[in-house]
Specification:
Two copies of one chain form a homodimer.
Chain A lengths: L4 H12 L1 H8 L8 E2 L16 E2 L3 H4 L6 E4 L7 H10 L3 E4 L2 H17 L4 E2 L10 H8 L5 E7 L2 H13 L3 H10 L8 H4 L2 H15 L8 E3 L7 H9 L2 E12 L2 E12 L11 E8 L3 E8 L3 H17 L26 E11 L4 H11 L4 E10 L4 E8 L2 E2 H12 L4 E10 L2
Parallel strand pairs in A: 1-2, 3-4, 4-5, 7-9, 9-16
Antiparallel strand pairs in A: 6-8, 6-10, 8-9, 10-11, 12-14, 12-15, 12-16, 13-14
């Protein structure tokens, strides 16, 4: 269902590589029908026109179709299609992160009741096998953290900003010109896409239901080239990180641009690549790195799921974990986060300013790790102060920053970014 | 079976984390018996003494035991134990790379006939989920190459040699003192261990039987600190790489120390970490990085397999690919390798020597990419020449090197290393 970029990749694989794919599952794989909105738009497609249909029921209700691949995206009408497919006893493969993030646990429970499989390796990380690894090979671990770069658009933009000191708008325009960002980039740059994916990984890793609303979100549009300059001076890169941590059953999940030490492997993930670092009590740190999007990489994941199902067609459905079996502990708000912070402030260029700021932060229990006084502007009589802190509670920092920004000598708190180690 | 380092880790997980492991498979996991050679040596173990046995048949023939975990290692008597277990209808999990490399395809075929599962995630890469990923999530790919660092002992030694300019013997002694190398290090430093693991990955990735004898092997004991110095000057790291490539069905598999560009991710894998880079026609390059050995990481992989089996006990066995379905193409000898080379020669310090060497290499079709003249020794009247070549066929290079080393002005060809890009 769906013959866009990824849909074409999957259709082409099924049409042109059917022989070797069929050998590997010891069963013939045949593309039966393809749902499209407008068949006339696919006259150049490899898919024979007689396979195209505009009626979803031609697929959902065809008894000769065993596996349905959903590559439409979004929740409407796909959620209804997926429910229909599962209820009709079809196995389903989807790349739909939004549906799996919002409705995944319900759909998986339905699939279990109906004794069909619902696989979604392609929903996170493109060609990186992270979903299956969390569900299977790493399942014996108590996962302590998931730290990831799982949105290629924003990583491309940040890479441009870091290497070329481009402003956000310029980098975004460049990404749009390259086809890496959509005309309306909100879903990517405000972190919705990353939050969907993180909620899927966190649900699998922590064995409980974590929805997109459980993920704190801060986008990248407020980043300034100066932040990249100071990050570099301080030994860090700025990356758009999707992080979920678990501590005594309490979960914290967040998506934001953050400082990360330049020699950390996540700092070296450039362009449209993705990476996921899993820390478990047995496996230690395992890092996965690869192409997080694109036609071929996503086709790799979709076809892996299709072949896994095809290999076992006609047998009882293997048992998979269903969420949520483990529900102790709570989802913690961002105010409970404890980490180091980077602050960039525009202040009056006069003696005693730093002391006033340090005084307020100190009263809030926030101690300073480093202070740089930068870019004094003689005409405006302002200067820029760059501060890094020792670990502090976010609620305390936010409160202190409110007091700092109300000081007469403080023009503006320009940036507040978390520092991940 | 086996209560060594990894065996203790698995037993401890089953004993102390039984509750949460059982919840995740919706079934109670019980450690029933442990095979040991000498029970008196395990009096400090967490395993209750009444679970210990010295008789393998107590385990192999116990009808109440459903899953057997083999953590003894080696081929004798373990191959017989594994055959016995499978024939008796037990599911088997093993971390044994030697057995899986030498007898894996036969054992897997037997397991298929007996309708039991034989899983071996822990045989390669410790906590890195590479075996399952190749068998499942990446199965739709035509794999073009597998490039890996899969022996922690040698990577630790090379890291010491690179960072501290230690000689091989000194770095080996240090590794032995740290418990990272065995008293007899042959299995690691001569590449047997890496060849076993590579043959497993290559068999899975290329869907055909590739045994340890199909892997060309060169160890690391001849490396000299000077090689690390010149590698660094030329922009490379030296890593002990296990590589298998596929070209039109022809396979080439080799384990050797090689130059790799310093900014390549494999160049940054330090200490006892492992990494595997898979290149497939759909997934592109996917890199896995993590702890390749050790009690906990290996326990993660073993328990992942145990839980995968436990979740589906009583159901028909899921179908897995059995080797070898794809057997076109041949295994190519090392002489057919085509790559760039690094050469270090000790020569007479007199005019015309380089011309003589370049002449011989040129006649063999080998063109030079760079030449460094180093370390003239006035007393001995010798100098060191460091050469890198453009891509050449290994057979041609070996033949030319034979001629070069017979020159009167050439004292010795000290090093010949491949350059991977």
């Amino acid at each position: 269902m769906g013959l866009g970029n990824v849909g074409s990749g999957v259709a082409n694989a099924l049409l042109s590589q059917m022989d070797f794919l069929s050998v590997r599952v010891n069963r013939s794989l045949n593309l039966r029908k393809v749902l499209v909105r407008d068949p006339s738009k696919h006259s150049n497609s490899q898919v024979p026109p007689q396979l195209l249909t505009t009626n979803p029921e031609d697929i959902l209700d065809d008894p000769d179709i065993h596996i349905i691949v959903e590559l439409i995206g979004g929740t409407e009408p796909t959620t209804a299609y997926l429910e229909h497919a599962v209820t009709a006893g079809k196995h389903v493969v989807t790349a739909n992160k939004e549906v799996m993030s919002k409705n995944g646990p319900d759909l998986l429970a339905l699939a279990r009741r109906k004794q069909v499989r619902l696989l979604f390796e392609a929903s996170v990380g493109g060609g990186i096998p992270i979903v299956g690894s969390l569900m299977n090979q790493l399942v014996a671990n108590e996962i302590q953290s998931i730290r990831s770069i799982i949105n290629g658009t924003t990583n491309y933009i940040l890479t441009q900003m870091a290497y070329h000191r481009a402003g956000f708008q310029q980098a975004l325009t460049e990404a749009q010109a390259q086809g890496y960002a959509e005309a309306d980039p909100t879903n990517d740059v405000e972190g919705f896409d990353a939050a969907y994916k993180l909620s899927i990984l966190a649900s699998l890793g922590f064995h409980r239901r974590i929805g997109p609303d459980d993920v704190y979100r801060q986008g990248i549009s407020q980043l300034h080239p100066k932040d990249f300059q100071y990050a570099e001076e301080l030994g860090y890169a700025i990356k758009f990180l999707a992080i979920a941590t678990q501590n005594n059953g309490d979960i914290q999940a967040r998506v934001y641009p953050a400082f990360i030490p330049r020699d950390h492997m996540l700092a070296k993930v450039d362009g449209v690549y993705n990476a996921v670092e899993i820390t478990g009590h047995l496996c230690g740190q395992v890092l996965f790195h690869g192409q997080g999007a694109g036609r071929e990489a996503t086709t790799s994941a979709v076809m892996g799921d299709v072949m896994e199902i095809a290999r076992n067609l006609g047998q009882p459905t293997p048992q998979v974990p269903v969420l949520p079996p483990e529900t102790h502990g709570s989802i913690r708000a961002i105010g409970d986060l404890k980490c180091k912070y980077y602050l960039r402030l525009n202040v009056a260029d006069q003696p005693g300013v730093l002391a006033e700021i340090a005084n307020i932060l100190g009263k809030g229990g926030i101690s300073l790790a480093s202070v740089l006084q930068k870019d004094a502007d003689a005409a405006a009589q302002t200067a820029e102060i760059v501060i890094t802190t020792h670990p502090a509670r976010e609620a305390s920092l936010q409160q202190a920053l409110g007091l700092v920004s109300s000081l007469d000598v403080v023009q503006e708190v320009n940036s507040m970014l978390r520092i991940e180690e």
